Amino acid sequence: MDWMNNFKIKMKGIKTRLKKANIPKSPPMLTIIEKTFFDLIKPIKFAVSLLIMLIQPLILILSPLMIGFGSITTINVDFDSISVEHAASIITIVLAYPLFSWTFGIVFTSILGIFGAPLVAEEVDSGTILILVSKPINRYKIFLAKYIALFLYGILLSFSIIFLVGWIAVIRYSGNVSHFIGILPFLYSLFLYAILLTLIFTSITLAFSSIFKKSRNAALAVILIVVLSFLGFPYIKALLQVNYERFQIYHFDIGYHLGNVFVLFIEIFDAIPPTAAWQIYFAQNFGVFKYVAYVDPDQNINLGGLEKTNYYLPVISLLIWIIIALLLLFYGFISIKKREIYG
Amino acid sequence: MFEIWSKDLTKIYEKGERAFEAVSKINLCVEPGIHGFLGPNGAGKTTVINMLVGALSITYGEAEIREKKAGSVTARKLIGFLPQDPVLYKNMSGEKYLIYMGRLGGLKRKEAKRKAQELLQDFDLLGDRNKKLRKYSGGMRQKIALAGALIHDPEILILDEPTTNLDAVGRAVFIEKIKDLGKKKSIFVSSHVLSEIEQMCEDITIISMGKIILTDSIKNLKKKFLENVFILDTNMNEKLLEQIKQEEFVSNTWIDDRDGKIRIIPKDPVKLRETMSKIIFENKAELYRFDQIELSLQNIFLKFV
Description:
The structure holds two protein chains of two kinds. By secondary structure, chain A is mainly alpha-helical. Chain A is about 75% helix and about 5% strand. The radius of gyration of chain A is 24 Å and the shape is globular. Chain B is an alpha/beta fold. Chain B starts with a strand and ends with a helix.
């Protein structure tokens, strides 16, 4: 009972010290996070976002055609007769590219841009920021609160889609729960990638939202980056072919760096077997892999195959993007701190 | 300790190589009570207020709210701010808006809810508490914005043209509300409508073209100016005006456009009376009128700005 009394005395002491420190009872920052987050996750908005993200993976999963293994073929796989690992590898191979390029590529990043762009720009443009900055909260905390809210929204959206896609694919192909467990490493790698993507694109979006006066312009700027990354550079790569490497376009190819990191996470979790079935798309469109003509010296046979280009080590690509995200976040802080708010 | 204090408060906007001085060397010493901040449109009232609440940076000078640096978080804890023509969150209901404002001011959710209910009752908005703010009328928006400034029980209210966009009845109600609040809190209220300031305030500061013209209590101003204005009418008013302007015992003098007669505010009324006959005689002017008149506060304001 002594320890209980001591504990009570200690807690009382802590409470008294906290009271003296005059910490607000309901931190304003938490209030802004709450409001912003609940504004973002309006049910219809959320549902529509999920649906658009699901379109391409759903078409592939529900279609009898399977694009893979270097050719179009029908799925004639009896999932009940193959091992869990084999089943998992088939499912993940189907999902890898559409989830990277469409779901988490074009759509997810655009959604973050469209819904995140008004968070600062709209407040400034409409004038509501004037009342906000007159409240007892530092400006950088206002920015950080909106960042955290958008980040949490991105995490919730990506977690939901990963969970949904995983289950839809498993139900569609086999209906076997163990196959869902089998694809968990892939889902983990995807979730880790989604966290990074959310970190980066939340920073980009809020930085633009702080710079541009109109939220529409901020959203367009983010979408431009997305289009460039997932459509523009792949097109340039296809046009330039060998000159892509010669002119070292990969330095600026955002899609390459993101693909590089995506593949890194896949490899960390050993999520998909290293086969050309999925690597080919990352080779053709994003330069993460390249064709290498291996010739067996003894038999003089061309073995073919893909290997990593390693223009950048994946860890370096990851670091670059984390640094870019932090720099943009810092820029956003400075931008809102120095901003003059007119009445 | 002054409620609001500033020394040489200056705001300069720079665009490229051009610089524009919006307000210059504003010195404020606002005592507890209701203090009016009066000036025509474009005088710089909103600029000064926005510097006090931290929305604009201060180029030169200093300002404090109860000895806390203006714009700091500690200073903003003390104030409730009602901007000119306040913009509200259109998709929030009145009640949710007040709760949000309360929580931003540091209140717990339960406390913010309770205070929101009290204020909605007080401002006669209880029946509209669930309506979206975009559906509120101008008067209702002004009331809810004032409630939002009050919810965390600040010690000083800063109101920027609070009666803009209100009709006559709305204005009257609002002014009464402010006078009522003034019994419990210090209020710094800006306006370009002299009659409203006269109704609400004890002390006023007049600003024009970015500079303070004068600061005084309304009582003193009336006393000073009402006893101290002379009217002079002769057959050569323009000529005499130039001469009177040079006299060191004259504070201000002008020809009133309405009647063409000279108005004189002397520093020394006795000296003026003594010297006037000499001026008229030297210029061989015909004197039609020379006496002291009553000047309204409106006239004082108009002449200074």
